Amino acid sequence: MKCTTPRDVLKLIESEGVKVVDLRFMDFPGLWQHFSIPAYELEEDTFESGLGFDGSSIRGWQAINESDMIVKPVPETAFVDPFMEAKTLVLVCNICDPLTGVDYTRDPRNIARKAENYLKTLGVGDTAFFGPEAEFFIFDDIRFDQTANAGYYFIDSVEGRWNTGRCENIDGSKTSHNLGYKPRYKEGYFPVPPTDSQQDIRSEMMLSLIDVGVPIECQHHEVATGGQAEIDIRFAPLVTMGDMLLKYKYVIKNVARKYGKTVTFMPKPLFNDNGTGMHTHLSIWKENKNLFAGDGYAGLSQDALYAIGGILKHAPALLAFTNPTTNSYKRLVPGFEAPVNLAYSSRNRSAAVRIPMYSNSPKAKRLEFRCPDPSCNPYLAMSAMLMAALDGIQNKIDPGQPLDKDIYDLPPEELAKVPTTPGSLREALVALEQDHEFLLKGDVFTQDVVDTWVDYKMTNEAQAIDLRPHPWEFALYYDI
């Protein structure tokens, strides 16, 4: 049953025999948070009056002296949780100030809602469609620790190519042996079973996602060894897609746990193999017409080319939201199909923006921003992408000539002219400090949101990593 009103939600609770209502919202960096109430506590006016909670312990939110916050459930987001023992209905919520009732400016979902509204007020279009391709790894074991005198991580996977020489206990057998069938480094794309040992897990993930209202286009093994995977969501409007990406992560992690496995969306968990990206497709529509379709380069309209110009111009700042971890920049390096070149192309996958050429249909015309990774807060990342594209359209930003060449065959003097992505989270945050006026239009991002993001990421992540010795430093320097 699809809900559109509070009354629909109450009917669903009754028809499904729901015992628990789980209220979910996103913290500032990008993790789902929740608390639960008995189903009988949810009433029709709860959707308007909301429920109170302490926001002071939520990462990146306001101080303890202003800690009281309100969650307001959104009826359209209702779904029955497939993992809880007690029948549980999940509702995604917006966050409001309890005194004024105003939407909280640091609530990521609220920022995405404002971005959608800003698009409409400009008159450029009425809908921005996003289609992210989020990749991830399915591992069998993960251990990590950091103390004053030690620091390490250990990853393992039955699919890991590094395990071809070990004795393994297969399917509970008393005999230790190894069956091989482990994807070679950088050769994990599309092998059939038994090399692809995770088909059943991914299929269950896919079907579980469909059951909770996330339409899926396909699932497959990805390039890296060690259990890299991808499940593609069908495109949707910005806020809806943000909601679906949170369900996506939730379902995938919990299905993996059911199989005794663990999932990570870290961009670069394995050394010297492909990292995990989230190539994100964008098109802007008005009155059911795709404004990105035209007779220009690769079948694009002039507005689409201007949108590309905006994304490329603001890319260094954008990456502070679309690639928001120190680990993100271990993926964005040459040699691993990484989109490190701030250029566009219909063919070159090392370009930051690609125009997919699978179909000539005007409805299929879109741009693909290849830099993002799934460690991002999807509401913030997609909102920032839209704001950069709109800035390009408003200011008619020329993206220059396409890069339809093998970047690695360019002579050094020509290669030096191609700008590249920032080399670290710190560089991206500095770029955001210097270039964020385009985000402030329409009060979509506030100055407080930008300042808080930069301060939080710089203090808790960039500086925190700088302070800690790295294991490889001992290999390099211990005997100096």
How would you characterize this protein structure?
By secondary structure, the protein is of the alpha+beta class. 31% of the residues lie in helices and 22% in strands. The protein has helices at 6-16, 46-49, 108-122, 199-211, 238-258, 302-322, 328-331, 378-394, 412-415, 425-434, 437-440, 447-466, 471-477, and strands at 20-26, 32-38, 51-54, 68-73, 79-80, 88-96, 127-139, 141-146, 151-156, 168-169, 176-177, 216-221, 228-233, 236-237, 262-264, 278-286, 289-290, 341-345, 351-354, 367-369. Strand 10 (168-169) and strand 11 form a beta hairpin.
Mean pLDDT comes to: 93
Cα distance, first to last residue? Answer: 67 Å
Number of H/I helices: 13
Q: What helical percentage do the residues reach?
A: 25-40%
Question: Which overall shape is indicated by the principal axes computed on the Cα atoms?
Answer: globular
* Total beta-strand segments: 20
Output the structural class.
alpha+beta
**Low-confidence runs:** none
Largest sheet: 10 strands, mixed
* Proportion of residues in extended strands: 15-25%
- Tell me the Rg in angstroms: 23 Å
Identify the notable features of this structure and list them briefly.
480 residues; alpha+beta; ten-stranded mixed sheet; six-stranded mixed sheet; 13 helices; globular
